[in-house]
Write a structure and sequence with these properties.
Layout: H1 2-5, H2 11-33, H3 40-59
Helix pairs in contact: 2-3
Length: about 60
């Protein structure tokens, strides 16, 4: 999927959401599978990761 997306958008904008999906998946698996909790600071980190992905994309002139 990543290789298909770089055909239409720059690599930096394609890789960032790909890395975000991986990060969120690794964060959510223990929460769902083991019914464990997460500290509030971990949730803040996930929100910051999302913000770090959204703003560069919005600031890009190449997205459609």
């Amino acid at each position: 999927m990543l290789s298909l997306s770089v055909k239409t958008i720059p690599l930096g904008l394609a890789y960032a959401p790909w890395a975000e999906i991986g990060t969120k998946t690794v964060f959510l698996i223990p929460l769902i599978a083991f019914k464990s909790g997460a500290e509030p600071i971990a949730w803040v980190g996930i929100v910051l990761v999302t913000i770090g992905i959204v703003f560069p994309y919005l600031g890009s002139t190449t997205h459609t």
